[in-house]
Amino acid sequence: MSNYPTYKLGQICETTSGGTPNRKNDAYYGGYIPWVKSGELGKGTIYDTEEKITEEAVKESSAKIFPKGTLLIALYGATIGKLGFLGVPAATNQAVCGIFENEKIDLQFLSYYLFHKRNDLIAQGTGGAQPNISQTILKNLSIPLPPLATQHQIVSRIETLFAELDKAEERLRTAQQQLKTYKQAVLNHWLNNDEGKWETVKLGEVLQKIEAGKSFRCNEKVPALHEKGIVKISAVTWGEFMEDECKTIINEELYNPKYRIHKGDLLMSRANTIQLVGNCVLVKEEPRRDILLSDKVLRLVLCDEIDSNYILYSLKTSNCRNQIQIMSTGNQDSMRNIGQDRIKKIEIPLPPLSEQQRIVEEIESRLSQASKSSACIEEALQQTEALRQSILKKAFSGELVVSTSSTTTKGG
Asked: Which of 108, 112, 121, 263 has the CA that lies 20 to 30 A from 352?
């Protein structure tokens, strides 16, 4: 329990939310007044915004200009509880609440406390999958309130400790990126054909066929085990088959079992962004659900005497990724597509089956070690987040107060 007296946030701070000028009135948008939306929170101090509104919009709508230094918190949706400070005067939409400076509380102190209590606020939210919190909930939040000088001291101590964690996180993320680079280097090394020791073939020469699914009327609900589902491209985007990335088929009369996905299938997304178009995965387990191919996810059916893992890893090399990106069509900045005829033209080196299998063993041995290291890094990153909450818990219970005659923390 806090060693400090507690007050309701509404007792010590003035708060108000913003508003959205009528979208149908062009005179309200394109002005010079920054207009903050909730998605722009969580990134530190805000100096500029995606959209700007006019003075007329402020005069004729519920939008209002908040002063520089205002603490902002998101009230709605996926960004609920995200925080930010205004580095310039700005307006906000109704999903953002402004908390104003006063002589009772250091807003940086308050922002750390709100960050600490974010999960509690979300738990009090109302609504569906994306809960909302009201200003009433916010104003009723109990805040420990030490003297202002102590608040400054606590903020300074938190920032010092957080800076140390930031450095640790930066090192971990650098190591994480180095592992990604290493994994790609492993593929490029074991599947290169610089000396021409293997025959180079077109992918179509080792395929029996390419199967495409159908476009069904669906909703976004993940199918229950007894429902028919259709796979989304996100299921084959991130290196492994993600079974839960599928939609429920509305019209089951069109269902055709020949499109069902099975263990051992080699799948490719024919549509995605320029970086991800043509991504492939191998389905390692029989899906628990009855999931069908979509028109945007293809099944590559290989000829006999071809190792599917060898083809999978080949298609992930820089050489094949470059070919796929060059062959794909569409807008450079949005969705790209690669057709079946072009997929068949992708060139890969093809050693004998025994050599394919040996190469796969070498690759998987190295990738397995890299994956273990990645798991350790991810665990360490989660621990740093837990440490942040531990620091905040101590801060707001009085355990980080530094006495004027000592540089050690209270209780430590």
From this structure: 263
Statement to judge: residues 210 and 71 lie in one domain: no
* 169-178 own/partner pairs: CB under 8 Å, 24+ apart: 169/381, 169/384, 172/377, 172/380, 172/381, 172/384, 173/381, 175/373, 175/377, 176/374, 176/377, 176/378, 176/381
Q: Is 340 exposed, middle or buried (0-12, 13-18, 19+ CB in 10 A)?
A: middle
DSSP secondary structure letter of residue 236:
G
Same-domain status, 131 and 224: no
The CATH number of the domain where 54 resides is what?
Answer: 3.90.220.20
pTM: 0.75
Q: In what order do the strands lie in the sheet with 51-53?
A: 51-53, 29-36, 90-92, 65-66
Measured distance CA(258)–CA(269) in Å, rounded: 18
Shared domain check, 87 and 10: yes
Q: Domain check: are 122 and 49 in the same one?
A: yes
Q: Which of 82, 114, 145 is the last residue of a domain?
A: 145
- C-alpha angle 140-153-400 in degrees, rounded to nearest 5: 80
* DSSP code, position 99: E
Which range of residues forms the domain containing residue 44? 6-145
pLDDT tens by residue, the chain, 412 residues:
467 899 999 999 999 999 999 999 999 999 999 999 999 999 889 999 999 999 999 999 999 999 999 999 999 878 889 999 999 999 999 999 999 999 999 999 999 999 999 988 888 876 655 678 888 999 999 999 999 999 999 999 999 999 999 999 999 999 999 999 999 999 999 999 877 889 999 999 999 999 998 877 777 788 888 888 888 899 998 889 998 888 888 777 777 888 999 999 999 999 998 889 999 999 999 999 889 999 899 999 999 999 999 999 999 999 999 999 999 998 766 789 999 999 999 999 999 999 999 999 999 999 999 999 999 999 999 999 899 999 999 998 888 765 544 333 443 3
Interacting residues of 405 by C-beta distance below 8 A, sequence separation 6+: none
DSSP 343-359: HTT-EEEE--HHHHHHH
- Residue 161 covered by a domain: no
Q: Are the CB atoms for 28 and 54 separated by under 8 Å?
A: yes
The answer to whether the CB of 294 falls within 8 A of the CB of 214 is: yes
- Among residues 99, 98, 84, 92, the alpha carbon closest in space to that of 57 is found at 92
Which residues, listed in sequence order, are joined to residue 348 by a DSSP beta bridge? 201
